[in-house]
Amino acid sequence: MPAPTPLTIATQSVQRLVKEEKYYRKELTQQSERVKKLETDLKESGESADSNASFVLKQEQKAVEETKAVFVPLNERIAEAIQRLEEQIATAESENGSAEELKKAKEALGLGQAVEEPPVA
Question: Which terminus in the chain has less CB density within 10 A, N or C?
Fold first, then answer.
């Protein structure tokens, strides 16, 4: 099997980072829902709530903040990967690279550019 071209490597890099960002967004949503549920349960139980419930709530809130903190550096890495991919696309087009590779690269470029802004921490 021949070694992957720089275009393929750049394409796969963007795809991997976009996938990672999507998983973190999903995780953040799930964690936020757990925090809301814990807050609601804590309010409903009032004074009868055990001290463990407030500890668990604080731990979940900390996990949400840690997940939010991941987005800024991750989005920076995505931006760098997009820039490298754009350079590789330009190089491949000037050298009449594989049409299939260019198609995949442009699709990955679109995915990378569609990544939303990071959630506010």
Answer: N
